[in-house]
Amino acid sequence: MIGTLVLAGTPIGDIADAPPRLAEELAGADVIAAEDTRRLRRLTQALGVTPKGRVVSYFEGNESARTPELVEELVGGARVLLVTDAGMPSVSDPGYRLVAAAVERDVRVTAVPGPSAVLTALALSGLPVDRFCFEGFLPRKAGERLGRLREVAGERRTLVYFEAPHRLDDTLSAMAEVFGAERRGAVCRELTKTYEEVRRGGLGELAAWAAEGVRGEITVVVEGAPEKGPEDVGPEELVRRVRVREEAGERRKEAIAAVAVEAGVPKRVVFDAVVAAKRSG
């Protein structure tokens, strides 16, 4: 009989947030794949659990090599529990490769729902939550970071990002440059921990605050772009948006179509703007 892969959410701060089923799965799994085995040991001790199964490391550095081993364990009938340092596996953490490989072999995949920094920050931000998208970590290099932000400059859904504390001021400054200093945002720091803090304000204001130095685990929530009518987007802006998408690797035809939808104008309007810009040099 084929085994089961269990993705288990772990506390993002307060250990009391651990779901009751987490302790059961930790105690009964045949194999526990942990992002950091030392943190796993602290977690099991805090929950008063003694794992009966084998514990192996499963992190970014060995994810590709260890995935086939774990899949064979699953095909052989093992119950494999995957845990990361905090939150749900696969969400900016190891897990996607293993899930994809398990699904390909018809292995049952289930989850122990648990804490999520993405949803917690979104709920606390005070920004619209009916539609949102998670963008993970931005690139470390300034140019690549600006390019990624420009790709979503017109995104109307609320945006959620993870960021390292030592890069927060640069990231917020880049967001203020691309999205506008007045665009609303929220910096959620040390969620569910003793020094939890949610700082809300315009991106320019938040960037100035972060320049003084910020510590802890950071999640940034940014308001989506305001809706614009066709008359709000001129030819130069349409051409700029097409160029940004082309630089990101899109073909011109697809870029023009996407910008037309984004700006709420016919594709012919965008096409004519691009042709006119090309003729003018």
UniProtKB/TrEMBL annotation:
Catalysed reactions, semicolon-separated: cytidine(1402) in 16S rRNA + S-adenosyl-L-methionine = 2'-O-methylcytidine(1402) in 16S rRNA + S-adenosyl-L-homocysteine + H(+)
Location within or outside the cell: Cytoplasm
Keyword NADP: no
Family annotation (CDD domains): RsmI
GO MF annotation, one: rRNA (cytosine-2'-O-)-methyltransferase activity
EC number: 2.1.1.198
Record InterPro entries: 4pyrrol_Mease (IPR000878), 4pyrrol_Methylase_sf (IPR035996), 4pyrrole_Mease_sub1 (IPR014777), 4pyrrole_Mease_sub2 (IPR014776), rRNA_ssu_MeTfrase_I (IPR008189)
GO cellular component, one term: cytoplasm
Domain Tetrapyrrole methylase: 4-207
ATP-binding among keywords: no
Keywords from the UniProt entry: Cytoplasm, Methyltransferase, rRNA processing, S-adenosyl-L-methionine, Transferase
Origin: domain of life: Bacteria
Homology family: Belongs to the methyltransferase superfamily. RsmI family.
HAMAP family: 16SrRNA_methyltr_I (MF_01877)
Function as written in the Swiss-Prot or TrEMBL entry: Catalyzes the 2'-O-methylation of the ribose of cytidine 1402 (C1402) in 16S rRNA.
Record protein name field: Ribosomal RNA small subunit methyltransferase I
Native organism: Streptomyces variegatus
Native organism taxonomy: Bacteria, Bacillati, Actinomycetota, Actinomycetes, Kitasatosporales
